[in-house]
Amino acid sequence: MKTVELLTSDLKFEGRISELALNLPVEGIETDSRKPIVAKIFVAISGTQVDGHSFIEKVAISRPALIVGELPLGSLSSLAQSALTEHAISYIWVTDSKLALALLSSGFFDHPSRKLKMIGITGTSGKTTMTYLVESILKSAGFRPGVIGTVNVRFLDQIIESTHTTPGAFELQGILRQMLDAGCDSVVMEVSSHGLKLHRTASIAFDVVAFTNLSPEHLDFHPDLDDYFNSKALLFRNYPREARRVGKNARAVVSIEESRGQALFEELKAGSENLVMSVARTKPADFSGHGLKVSVSGIQGRVGEVSIDSPLVGDFNAENLLLAVAIGEALGISGALISKGLNALKIVEGRLEKVVIEVQGEAQCDLRKIPDVWVDYAHKSDALEKVLKTFKQMKGSRRLVCVFGCGGDRDKQKRPVMAKIAQALSDRVIITSDNPRTEDPHSIISEILSGVDNEIKNVEVIPDRAQAIDVAISTAHRDDLIVIAGKGHENYQLLPDPTNAKGVIKIHFDDREEAIRALKKLT
């Protein structure tokens, strides 16, 4: 591919490019000056930690095909300007480097999203469960879907570990190309607020976009809740326009159960006629959940022509099922096939996942004497509240035990809030460590404890997470419900590096494995 093929009218820029540079072969796009740059387009990104424009002199010497930046040429250092001249490297000044990176990346991989049925899901909670549900519906309808999300990237027989909920722009477009080439015809992906605000998903042509809910989260990245919401809303305000521009009839599905979703739905409805549909568990909506029954054994009922008999539990999963029904309808899939897909999904990894052990011989009789244990990814206030409320409503006379901690180097405001929620909804709370990263685990726990009412004697602290899980299970009553929250599907723990104050070490740790180990001691 040549440079000229990537510089489409979609890429708004100011600057001059030589005839020679227009016809240079391009072998990739790079933002990291430490990596090989030869024959690649280097995009200088102004990041929170490092500014790529400060490395332009070094990059120019490495013979890239082209350099793109959001600083005017005259604002670059004199050394950078001299290096560009000396090595005859063309520099293009764009209004937004992150947006330019996404547009260039899409063009480099020949716009794979235009050839795929694309479903994008955003919101604070429920995105991962939604991808599993929609994936199952697509498979039941004969599609060959790929999935991009928090747990992993998976398609056909391939599974790739995820590093971000929404990968960087070049990586994301490369994944879409890989899926298309492998034979996928559809992709369902989690779309994070980071991915939207940083333009990682710009130029993706979505067929259906969906909104789950909104609650405080990532306020270490977003200055306030309004910015967080408006970043999420970009998926609905901007991206359907891109889809329709390339011939897709984009649809939107929005949960109106909460005020932010209601406001988004009304905004979209005013401007897009019948291209947006509403979903609600308790309110009147295009897809209403009044007919769904939620119990400890699952969710049953009908939504229009869709019959639901799902092992998923909780009101929030009822909302997820409703959204999945609406997405299936928006894709033109029949009610029978939507039912087949929803009811086929038995488990979502790390999302209210029940821990099951297998034993042989006489030990099988002892399974009736052990507590029920669930692992969930709930690592924010709203998610933890929803999970604990689900079990509180269904537990009857059984005790509810919650084991949780809070991650380091993340939003600190939620720590005491989560303590209040856990203490109010649980009979017993064990506060422990999560992923402390560079923070002192004991300092994190102290901040969590600031939300505890010391008059209520149902909270204890066990900093070692493995020990906390073992104690919760080994001292439980046999009919207790135990929820281990925060890490879900993760099979690692991120701890402070004792040799580097700003460093992190990664060790193997899986809540499910620890729970199984403790449960087996009881049999």
Report what the structure shows:
This protein folds into three domains: 3-103, Udp-n-acetylmuramoylalanyl-d-glutamate--2,6- Diaminopimelate Ligase, Chain: A, domain 1; 109-344, Mur-like, catalytic domain (UDP-N-acetylmuramoyl-L-alanine:D-glutamate ligase, 3-Layer(aba) Sandwich); 353-521, Protein-Tyrosine Phosphatase, Chain A. The strands form five sheets. Strands 9-8-7-10-6-11-12-13-14 form a nine-stranded mixed β-sheet, sandwiched between helices. It has 523 residues and is of the alpha/beta class. The chain is globular, with a radius of gyration of 25 Å. Helix 12 (315-330) packs antiparallel against helix 13. 51% of the residues are buried. The protein is built from 18 helices and 25 strands. Strand 24 (492-496) and strand 25 (504-508) form a beta hairpin.
Roughly how many Å apart are the termini? 63 Å
Helix content: 25-40%
Average the pLDDT over all residues and give the rounded result: 91
CATH classification class of the largest domain: Alpha Beta
Largest sheet: 9 strands, mixed
The CATH architecture classification of the largest domain is 3-Layer(aba) Sandwich
